[in-house]
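User: I'm preparing a small set of examples for a lab meeting where we compare how different chains pack in three dimensions. I only have the primary sequence for this one, and I'd like the structure in token form so I can line it up with the others. Please keep the answer compact; I'll paste it straight into my notes.
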Amino acid sequence: MSAAPDLVVVPVGGANFGSLARAFERVGVVPRFSAEPADLRRASHVVLPGVGAAAAAMPALRSQRLADLLAGLRVPLLGICLGMQLLFEHSAEGEVPLLGLLPGRVERLPAAPSWPHMGWTTLTATASGRGHPLLAGIGADDWFYFVHGYAASTSSSTLASADHGGAFSAVVGAGNRLGVQFHPEKSAAAGRRLLRNFLDL
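Assistant: Understood. Below is the structure token output for the 201-residue chain.
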């Protein structure tokens, strides 16, 4: 029998950490919240959540000397919402450089049909996303909850897209670096399935 995942959530970016903790507990894992480099190095899985602006989150990561550490992780790393955006190279929100772990820019979503994008949306898996273990058991009829005004364009790292005035990256992945633009902790059974898939990596 394999050991339980040693899950560390990096508490940066103003996320609702209580909801995230309860979501992981529902799939059988109690996360630790820590920005201590030693804790991240020992972890089997790391989550980078976030709500708010990249211009505030990036200085916080750098002041805690976490930017280079996150880049060097070899264990599964999951960015959620703003945390996913931070994985990319640059954000138009404040014109700020990001972690650069995935190629591409984060851009403002179109004003139509509404801005920001808030609500339930389905996913469309890409060719590389179909069969990816992060999306195991998740289909076109599953709905996920989004709250965001900026998003990454679709690219070679896109595992699934969503649409809001045009397609954007909803799930991304390259090696151990993964991200979701939606909030799995607010996405009911489909969100729990994705979190369980992440922990099973």
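A couple of notes for your slides: The radius of gyration is 15 Å. Helices lie at 17-26, 37-42, 54-63, 67-72, 82-85, 188-200.

User: Perfect, thanks.
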